[in-house]
Every structure is written in C-alpha cells, then in structure tokens.
Amino acid sequence: METLIEKGILVGVNLQKNSHFEYSMEELANLAEALNVEVVGTVTQNLERVTPSHYVGTGKIEEIKAFFDEVDANIVIFNDELSPSQIRNLERDLECKVIDRTMLILDIFGRRAKTREAQMQVELAQLQYMLPRLVGLHASLSRQGGGTGGGFKNRGAGETKLELDRRKIEDQIAKIKKDLEVVKDQRETQRKQRRKNAMPVVSIVGYTNAGKSTIMNQLLRKIGQEDNKQVFEKDMLFATLETSVRNIELPDNKSFLLTDTVGFVSKLPHHLVKAFRSTLEEAREADLLLHVVDVSNEEYRFMMDVTNDTLKAVGVEDIPTIYVYNKSDLAGVEYPLVSGDNIWISAKQPVGLDELLLMIRKQIFSDYVKCDMLIPYDQGGVVSYLNTNATIFNTSYEEKGTLLSVEVKESDFNKYEHFVVK
After folding, report:
1. Spatial CB neighbours of 303, under 8 Å, sequence gap ≥ 6
2. 21-34 and 101-112 helices cross at what angle (nearest 10)?
3. What residues contact 222, with CB distance under 8 A and at least 6 apart?
4. What pLDDT is stored for residue 317 in this prediction?
5. Model pTM score
6. Cα 29 to Cα 18: distance, rounded to the nearest angstrom
7. Terminal C-alpha separation, the chain
8. Got the DSSP string for 78-121?
C-alpha cells in the first residue's frame, strides 16, 4: 500500500523585520523534510505583531486557502508555536490540518529518540504541549446537551471526554516525571563515580547538524578506538538525541571522557528545553565545552547565539570553552588554524584533530606536575600504579630504589609527595 505523502505549505510571519527570518523559514523547510513532508510552497507576511486570533492577518487566510488548493497540499505548517485558539481558528477557516513549528520538532524528536530516557523526555514534552490544546483537538466531538440546569448528565459527551482525557494526560505526566527522577538519580550516581575517579569530562555542544558526532567519531578513530564505539552521524537535523559518553585514552596514559549532547535549534520549544535539561546536565558537569560551529553556514553567528542562550537557560555557565569552527573547507576559510580558544578544522577531512587534541589537553591537564620520584624497591605497587596512571619519561634503577621521571595528576602528586626527590 503506498503511503500518503504529506504535501505542505509553510507559513511564516516576519515580525519587525527580523534579520534571521529567511533562515528560520529555511530551517522550517528542513524540519518538514526530516519528517518526509514535501514542501510545495511558502507564504510569508510582514507584521509588527502576530494577529491574536489567526497568527497571520485575517486577509492572508484567503490567500493561503487559494494557494493550498492550487498546489494540492494537505497540511499547513506555521513557523511559530500557535496558541490553542489560533490552531482552532485556522483549522476551521482553512479546512485542513494545521501544525506549528513546535509540533514538528516534537515529532522529529519522537522518531529519533532511541534510549528509554530520551523517549520519556519527548513523551513528557508532547503531553505538556497537548494539554492546553485538547479543546482544539476535540473540535469534532459532539457538543450535545447544554445549560438546562447543572448536573453531570447535562454535560455534552464531548465535555466529559475532554475531562477524562485531561485527567489521563495529567496522570501520565506525573508518572513520567517520577520515572525520570529515577533515571536522573542513576545518572547522578554515575557522575559521582566519575568525579571520584577524577576523570576530566569534555562535552560537545552546538547547533544541530554542525558536525558534533563526526568530530566525536574522528577523535575516536584518531586514537585507534574500535569501530563499535562510533556514534550515529548523518547530515540531517537532530540525527543524535542521546547523550553518548566515550572514554578517550591518550598515548601518554592520560584519559578523559567525551560526551555528545543533543543539537540546538532556534525557537526550540520551551517544553523541550525543560525536558532535555537532564541530557544537558552532562554539559553542566563538564570541565571543558567544545562548542562546534558549522562555519560554512552564513548564519553561524546566530546559531552560536542560540546555542549559548539555550545553555544559559539550562544552567550551563562559566565553563571553559573551545570554539571549534568545523566545515572550514566548505567555508573557504584557512584551516587548520588555532587562535586563542578558537580552532578552524574540517572533521570530515579529517584535518585539525591533532591541534584540537592538543588544545583539549592543555585545558584539562593543566594541573599535572612534572617531578622525579625515588620509590623504594619494596614499594613495587606504587611503581606499577604510576606506570598505569602517569606519564613516565625515564626509569632508572638506583641503589635505594626505582627513580622515575614522571608527570602526574596533582592528586597523585600529593599522595606520593614523600617519594619526590628535590
């Protein structure tokens, strides 16, 4: 049976001549395509403020309707989150299915979520979005019965159904929130464990499709980690929704954890910002952020602002950051190039990864101490510990014990300071 292809018209209101309007419409088209909707046309309008009843000016409705019939569309997608009454009015006047940007993003997240936690977070966001919009969704329900004195029996069947649905949704929301708390506690336990092991954490953040997963995979490849550790990468919006955590072991016995986070997008529904707070908490605990930017996109500065604002909204602040300008080859920019905390690379090429690792290393291993230690022969355990957990530059066997020229973590230095020879 052939599936019905959705053919959609995009509708956007450019408020007060917003300079990023064109780009947000382009992004809306990409979001629609990610859900296999064929975009067959676009209608835009310049307004000082949105029309409370219909989002667009009421005169625009006729134009959308005529266009809708002409291109044989079956869905209209609006570029902002619509209020319950706007959806209701638009569906009534356009006589077709209306969805907004938020629904689109929620739907994509719903299809991409793989882990139990991501699925719960998306479901929570979808339910919170639906709750105030139930009336619109039930416009077709019977409204018989009515105001002949109070009493439950006079309520229309539709009203009763709405009450039940609302209660069901509220119960479901409460249940998911409780389940998410459990997952959050497990995550917190894992994080505490990592902190105890004093493992530095580097978190990759950035706009969707900037190349975060590609960078993670190339770094894993670079250090020769087996392919089964690779994370999913694809040139599309929101290819990755899960937080992946990988252990990166460097040749000199230093290691750190690299975590990948969900991509950002402009006008990310606030339900989702809240829902993904715990996913982004990985970033909040990081010692270093890698902010990946698709420098080949002319709107890249705007994307950086969106990412920074969203991070701030979930409490990720004051963490040292390296700005990784990826896809430099497509931007025609010189690469690899390092300037302060900025680096221009092309992860697909893969060019600039050595330089990036060097920058990461400088940032997170700045508290390492170089010294010489003389360890008595009866303390063989210390020597083997340091061989595993430190960088040994030189080993010689003296009369009183093993003399090591080492670089160690500050915590290990404090622990074995009594072996240090001045």
Report:
1. 206, 207, 210, 264, 266, 293, 294, 297
2. 40
3. 350, 353, 354, 357
4. 84
5. 0.74
6. 18
7. 80
8. ESSPPPHHHHHHHHHHHTSEEEEHHHHHHHHHHHH--SHHHHHH
Residue that has been written with the tokens 């600039």 in this structure: 352
Question: What are the tokens at 274?
Answer: 């809240």
Secondary structure of residue 269 in the 3-state scheme:
coil
Tokens linked to 405: 């020229």
CB 298 within 8 A of CB 284: no
Q: Across 210-219, 275-284, 333-342, 361-370, which has the greatest mean pLDDT?
A: 333-342
Q: What is the DSSP string of 328-367?
A: HHHHT---SEEETTEEE-BTTTTBSHHHHHHHHHHHHTTT
Residue type, 208: T
β-bridge pairing 97-100 and 75-78: parallel
Q: What is the dihedral of CA 86, 89, 93, 96, to 10 degrees?
A: 70
| Distance of alpha carbon 316 from alpha carbon 332, whole angstroms | 32
**Residue 251 preceded by cis peptide, ω within 30:** no
> Residue 254: pLDDT above 70?
yes
Q: Find out whether 247 and 254 touch, Cβ atoms under 8 Å.
A: no
Q: Note if the bond before 336 is cis, omega within 30 degrees.
A: yes
E-assigned strand segments in 227-348: 244-249, 255-260, 288-294, 321-326, 337-339, 342-344
Segment 358-378 mean pLDDT: 91
Is the pLDDT at 39 greater than 90? The verdict is yes
> What DSSP element (H or E) covers 153?
none
- What does the pLDDT look like over 91-129, one tens digit per residue? 999 999 899 999 888 888 888 777 788 788 889 989 988
Q: Which amino acid is at 207?
A: Y
Phi, psi of 59 (to 5 degrees): -65, -25
User: Any bridge partners for residue 326, and if so which?
Assistant: 294
Chain centre distance of CA 116: 16
Is the separation of the CB atoms in 247 and 202 below 8 Å? no
Nearest to 322 by CA among 301, 342, 347, 302: 342
What residues contact residue 234 under an 8 Å CB cut-off, 6+ apart? Answer: none
Strand order in the sheet with 391-397: 368-375, 402-409, 391-397
Q: What is the pLDDT of residue 53?
A: 94
pLDDT category at 155 given cuts 50, 70, 90 is very low
Which of 91-95, 184-188, 284-288 has the highest mean predicted lDDT (pLDDT)? Answer: 91-95
